[in-house]
Amino acid sequence: MNVNRGEAETAIRALCYQWAAERSIRPNPNADPREFHPSFSAFTRWMQEEGYDRYLRFRSTMGPEYDAEMWFDQEFKQTWRR
User: Fold this and answer.
1) Number of folded domains that form the chain
2) Predicted confidence band of residue 29 (pLDDT cuts 50, 70, 90)
3) Is 33 a residue whose pLDDT tops 60?
4) Entry pTM
5) Does residue 19 form part of some domain?
6) Helix 64-75 to helix 40-50 angle, to the nearest 10 degrees?
7) Are residues 64 and 53 in contact, defined by beta-carbon separation less than 8 angstroms?
8) Within a domain: 39
9) What burial letters (b/e) apply to 2-23, b meaning 16+ CB within 10 Å?
């Protein structure tokens, strides 16, 4: 089942925090943000294991994984890596 892009974005952004909380992933506020590297591939594996992979199936010009990784990077303040 495919979802629309807006629904996928809302879900993925929320799932970022659920995934991080379950793994006790928290940035150190005193550390350089470039040293905080949550793994997008670990996140997508978790999505598949938990049955949330339907949110990675939507229409996108650049591709669903590209968009999902962009949202993940935005939520974890990692856009400097792009």
Assistant:
1) 1
2) low
3) no
4) 0.84
5) yes
6) 110
7) no
8) no
9) ebeeeebbebbeebbeebbeee
